[in-house]
Amino acid sequence: xxxxxxxxxxxxxxxxxxxxxxxxxxxxxxxxxxxxxxxxxxxxxxxxxxxxxxxxxxxxxxxxxxxxxxxxxxxxxxxxxxxxxxxxxxxxxxxxxxxxx
Length: 101
Prior knowledge:
The structure is a single chain. The protein is an all-beta fold. The protein has one domain (13-98). Helices cover 0% and strands 57% of the residues. The chain is built from no helices and eight strands. It has strands at residues 16-21, 24-31, 34-40, 43-49, 58-61, 68-71, 75-85, 88-98. The strands form two sheets. A four-stranded antiparallel beta sheet has the order 1-2-3-4, with no helix packed on it. Strands 5-6-7-8 form a four-stranded antiparallel beta sheet, with no helix packed on it.
C-alpha cells in the first residue's frame, strides 16, 4: 500500500533530520508551518501544525532525549516526547523562545 505524506519537505539541508530514539527510528521534516514525524519512509507517526503564519526554517532532533526543536525567523519551539504506544510517538510542545536577535 502506498502512503501519502502531508506536505513537501523544504529544499534545504535544515528541513529534514533523522535519529534513533529508544529503538524507534525517527525521520522529521518541516513543510510550511507543519512538522511531520515519520517512523520510516511509509510510517506516518504524527503531524503538528503551527497557528502562526511564519514558515518554519529548520528542525533538529536530540537522540538522547527525543526532543525535537524547530524554529521560525523569530522563535524556537521545543517538543518533548511524552509517550509511546505500538511504535507511535506522542510529542508535546514544552517551551517557546521568542524575539531572537
